[in-house]
Amino acid sequence: MIKNYFKIAFRNLWRHKSFSLINIVGLAVGMTACFLIFMYVRFELSYDKFNQNFSQIHRLNTDIKTPNEVLHWSSASPPMGPTLQADFPEVKANARVFGAGFLVESNNHKFQENNLAFTDPSLLKIFTFPFIHGNPATALKDPFSVVLTEASAKKYFGGTDIVGKTLKLNGKQLVTITGVMQDVPLNSHFNFDMLISSSTMEKMKLIDMNEWGNFSNATYILLPEGYDGLKLQAKLPDFLKKHISEDKRRKGYNYELFIEPLKDVYMDTFRGAPVNGNLRNVYVFSIVAIFILLIACINFVNLTTARSTERAKEVGIRKVIGAGKNQLTTQFLGESIIISMIAFIVSVLLSMLLLPLFNQLAGKIISHNIIEHGYIFILFAIAVAIGFLAGIYPALVLTNFKITTILKGRFTSSVKGIFLRKGLVVVQFTISIVLIVGTIIVYNQLNFMRNQSLGFRTDQMLVLDFSGDSTVQAMSESLKHEFTQVPGVLSASGSGTTPGNGNSVAYSEVESRNGSLVPVNMNLYDVDFDFIPQYGMKIVAGRAFSRDFATDSTKSFVVNETTVKNLGYTSAKDAVGKTFNQWGRKGTIIGVVQDFHFESLQQNVKPLNLRINPHNLGVFTLKIKGGDIPNTLKAVESKWKVLIPQRPFSYYFLDQNFNKQYATEDRFGKLFMYFAVLAIMISCLGLLGLASYSTLQRTREIGIRKVLGATVPGIVNMLSKEFLWLVGIAAIIAFPLAWLGMHSWLKDFAYKINIAWWVFAVAGILAMMIAISTVAFQAIRAALANPVKSLRSE
Amino acid sequence: MNKTEVSESTMIKITDLEKFYRTEEVETIALNKLSIEIKTGEFVAIMGPSGCGKSTLLNILGMLDDPDEGSYVFNGIEVAHFTERKRADLRKHNIGFVFQSFNLIDELTVFENVELPLIYTGVPSSERVKRVEEVLDKMQIMHRRNHYPQQLSGGQQQRVAIARAVVNKPKLILADEPTGNLDSSNGNDVMELLTDLNEQGTTIIMVTHSEHDARYSHRIIRLLDGQSVMENIMI
Ligand SMILES: Nc1ncnc2c1ncn2[C@@H]1O[C@H](COP(=O)(O)OP(=O)(O)OP(=O)(O)O)[C@@H](O)[C@H]1O
Ligand SMILES: [Mg+2]
What we know:
A: 18% strand, B: globular
């Protein structure tokens, strides 16, 4: 029986090659898209699960309440972890992680490393980081011991058997390698190239480990299996009251602690994580995958039911001969599963081929191959399910034909069947048009963000990063002068950071309109005298820093417009001369700078101040001539090697670096576009199949019409019209859906485009044109055919 | 199952059988209180003008369709209101069909077409080969066993169709204008085959427009507007 089914299934496939091809290609492409997205989604949902204590690990988060805002931070202060463990028996372990950056030296190699971490020995007990050499239980116990990852061990020593060797930090501090661990898995919400024992930090006197008000480190705690972190969280207000008395807090400040299970950390876009996912994107792509698959399945259903006229005879005969309904259903389901299996094999090959590209697109290696993690078996199961789902409806339709009607000979598709097929085509094109509109809007927004004036000069700005090296800071004025001597360099300035690269937030007190001092969390830019003019920032009131005023380097602040607005001043001028205290520096506001975007356009501009502070400079920005940038760069590098020989040359361009912030949106946009193209392609494939069937069935009618005098354009028009209607209806349904979806996507951006009507027009016309070219080809062929031939075919 | 009193040799007994076709505007009475009895081993021809309900009757007798009113007793079992599944089951073991338009499956070879009913009745594979070859041989179509239907002449196709109808050794063969698409020589061959089968004990009911073909039967039932108007017993 099975053999007979297979036989007839394969013969059927072979006899109707173009039909089979459309089905297989459509399904294969749909499956490939679905498989890749499936792997992506699985990877995104796999974060941190490699940890054996996954369900027990929690992160300690803090809300910092200041008089005028609440900061939702993902960090805690250094004493919190150990004290928590001392106070509560349910806290089995705690580990703190402090991000760090050093110039690291081994033999003759020097690297500026910015992804290092100081941490407690217990980190290796809480998280699962297998060691290649050394003992994880003791590796981070002593001061000046470090653990390298496999990759960094190879980078410094060319091998991993290096326990006992030493490295030099910032040119002076020797540390001993006590272990080499496997690289941090890609699906970890934090990673590092080297761990340094936290006792080192104390010995180096980098921070005060007993300061309750300094929220600089991540804290992880281990709770008993099945223990609800909220139970512990409920006890934390009392804990805080006990340990942080009023006098230990800043005036008007208050804290609240939160326990967050590890499973939520990676996707936590509210507080953030070092490596941050986005659940919304996971949903979007899951839905897109389901949509694409749906489109491919619709093709299958449509083409199969459209062919039912042909298959009806076979069904009738089989029934007469003794086939039961179940046997026929099995047969037709078998056929669709065979098609889906062939499509599966094709899509496995395609997925293998495309996976490296997809990894690139996703910006990380979601999978090395599709055999990994038993993916292939899951995919196989999905493929069988697709075959089943796509086949069940046609199977039921075919087996439910009445024998007597079929055997009468003339058998045409039922009105219901035609209606359903048209409805499904509308669904396909609705999805496609939504995706097209989405793509256009994503790209518009990206373009908008890239081209939006940021409030400072971005092009031909070369930034040299010396990572706050104190010897460089000490000579910054003369070094700047030296760099401006390089041909092609126009000017130089120094600053602590550059827009797009993050900055410190400083607790400050500013005089408000009524004369009282209000606490404000100010974003802080430490700069030199050349920064504001070189960056082309506009002073809207008062003045910029000037070497002519002796107090400018110790007592003067420039604030941005948002600060002024938030303090209640109606005019920027009114803020000039007001009192401003920050981190022990007492002075006045001397000028107001026009708001500039120091964060991405997803964020509103926040209060910010600039001040002169040569001791906090981290980078030089060189304005360079447009002509020969590579040569200028080379010349700057040689100069660097002479002037700053102790540090590796490190640079970036301001605009590129700023736009890096949009990498996620960029990838999102690209993926969206690719899937939109796929969706419309598969939809058109189905339309092509349907159109060719419908014209095939009407061959006789077309012949008769031509004999009676119909013109070719008239016939093409007649044949194309019915399909174009469907695309039109799809557009009407798609537009509001797309508007709603994209409106909610745009909500994440503080600065965004308005959704223009032309986007819909373009999407609709595009879909219409693609559909026309698909259908018209068939229609023209049918219309041009010799009517004598088509009439004889009866 | 409800057994009705019938004599030993009665295969089919229909009483007051009615069949209507309702379309939106009109209701057609295809069979109008028709009563017929057919004995095991008979060869019956059904004749009548076009549209008088011959095919409708044959479809009901073959359990491809069910009547609206009346009773149909097949081999002592009332089947008028059987479910589709039960009808299919009874059909595949007892009845073979031959059609005017042959109705072979284009995707299957001659051999496979004939083998199909055996597959549906669950005959094991080795037994199937034997029986298919036997019947193809009898129909003198053995040399074409691996051809596809389109590669055969009309007469050859009808012989394959008859081979398929008899391969399961049915007690009853229903033939709807079996010679309708054939020339007279091929038509006669088919009639000879049916006569042979009838002589070996198979009951045959055949719809025909040809008085010549009808002469092969034992009895002619003439229908007019869904009612039996006359029965001729052939000698
Ligand atoms: N599916 C149907 N729907 C409506 N009316 C039908 C249907 N099938 C048959 N009829 C009507 O029932 C009547 C009997 O039809 P039937 O096919 O049994 O005639 P027939 O005797 O076989 O004719 P012919 O010799 O032309 O084959 C006809 O009047 C026909 O129009
Ligand atoms: Mg008829």
